[in-house]
User: What shape does this take?
Amino acid sequence: MSTSNLQVTRYVGLDVHKRCVMVGAVDGQQQVVLPPRRLSWDEFERWRPQHLHPTDAVVLEATTNAWHVYDQLAPGVASVTVANPLLIKWISSACVKTDGHDTLKLARLLAAGIIPAVWVPSEPVRQLRALVSHRRRLIRQRTQARNRLHSLLHRHTILPPEGDLFGPAQRTWWRQLDLPPTEQLLVSQDLHLLDTLAPLIEQLDQQLRLESVREPWAAQLPYLVQHTGIGLLTAMVLLAAVGDITRFAHASKLVGYAGLGATVHDSADTHHRGGITKQGRRELRAAMVEAAWVAVIHNAYWKARFARLSRRLGSQKAIVAIARHMLVGVWHTWHEGQVDQHTDAVAIARKLMTWAEQGGKGMRPALSATQFVRLQLDRLGIGQELTELRYGSHTYALPAAHSVKVAQAG
Assistant: This one.
């Protein structure tokens, strides 16, 4: 929300569409001072500087183009509020629904001070969300192609060979399968799709690695990757989804934002807690569940806790509970800038080395891999005693604590 010290005299509602926008306004007494009118986007561009004033408060619903409209309007008016469309529908459902009604409804809710506003992400957050969202779409296409190929093998009761079924070494095996011509074509196209998607996904992964060492992400990311199960790419998903962790005053707010909080029915003598709400950012919830599965395999604390919960709840509910508990821990370390109590400095150093190696010199042009690791350990305030790191089949000498002062790339 953009704000100004000027006294607001009009409350302007915008009902934004793909090809046009409906504009209407009321005053502080809810009286219509600007009857609804429909404008094409070209007409709105000419209308806006002439009819919107520094004393106007503007509201629009969150849509695909809401942030572009927000950026255009914010410098010239008293405030711009982006409303949550789901909550707006719940507050003001009506039997009569037209664009004109919707426009004045928004304006009147704003004048009454009961607009359920959404957080307006900064430009870096929007760009990171775009990268993460596009990567998720490509991953989904890759998964669909792989599932189709698995299904084909199942239909023909063909047992796959050992190893990476979709790796380059198995291409000849796929093409030599005794299949009808139509299915041979489908196999060929799905294999081609996988070959096409692989470099595109890798290109996005590399761009995310480059973004990871640029502000505002560079200072925050070490507090995320210290958690078991949260690697670099998962951390970037969390950064994109949350944006600014300081807007969540309590861990429960972040849990609710992820849709990992329990549904509650509490009325008179009835009190019931159900499954999770699943209302919130789906990619944040999915990332934490994925991280939880990794954590219960590789971390003794989470493995023991998962075992106890599984006996009572079953594995699926137990892993969701683990994801919720982990997200509470993420909030504490991220919001407060703390080290996780379950952090193992050596394990974190290995994760940091993976980050450094995968990103390459393009990500850290002024630093060696070991200098990069030491810089991140110093950010966390851990591993001061580490003088060497065994990574893979090699042992690397680490610089002394607080000896690396070179600025990161970006």
The longest strand covers residues 32-40.
